[in-house]
Fold this protein.
Amino acid sequence: MSMTVAALIVAAGRGTRMGSPTPKAFLPLGGVPILARAVAAFSAHPRIGLVVAVVSDLDAARRALGEAAARVVLVAGGPERQDSVRLGLAAVGGASLVLVHDAARPLVPRRVVDAVLEAAARYGAAVPALPVRDTIKRRAPGGGIAGTVPRDDLALAQTPQGFRTGLLREAYARADREGFLGTDDAILLERAGVAVALVPGSPRNIKITTPADLRLAEAILALGPGEEGGQDE
C-alpha cells in the first residue's frame, strides 16, 4: 500500500459510566493501561506511520504510555468526541488515510485493522461491523412495543473506522457548519453522500464502558490467541 497511514486514538472521555474517579483510558486491563493497549495495537502495525492519541490529561497519558509516549503524538481533547477527533485530525498532517479508533476497544485484532485499511484505501471509507443476533424491538411512547425491526439489514459498528483523510476532513467541516453531532465518524460521511464499506468486525473487539465490560475484557485477554482472544488473530 503506497498510501501513508495515521491512527487517531480517541481517549478523551471521562468514562462516567465506569464509576471510577480515574478516566477509563488510564484504568488497567491485565496490568496494562487501556490506553497503552489501544496504542500498541496500532504503533506496532507495519503500515501505520503515525499514531495520534487524543486524551483528557496529557501528563496522565504520558505516565500510562511510559516509554511508548515518545512514539505517540499526544493531543488534549475537547468536550465532545467529535471535538476530540477534529483536534486529532489537525495533528495527522499529510497522511493519506486515517484510522479513527476508540481507546475503549483495546483488544482490536490485527485482522480487523488490516481489513479496514484495505477497504478504506479502495473505497475511501470503511467500518468494521458485526451482524445483529438479537431480536430488535421498537419501543412505543407508552412503554410497550411499537414493532419489531428486521435485523437482516442491521449491523453493529465498531472501530477503527478508516477514511481517506481529505474525505473525513470535508465531512467534519460540513458537520461543523450545520451544527451536527454524530455518534461515530462514518455517519458524517454518510450525511455527505459518501458510500461507506462494511468489513467484518470481531466479537473480541468489545467496547469497555462499564465495570462488567472491563471484567469481560479481562476474561477475553486471558483466553490467549484466537478469535475469542488474542491480539494478533
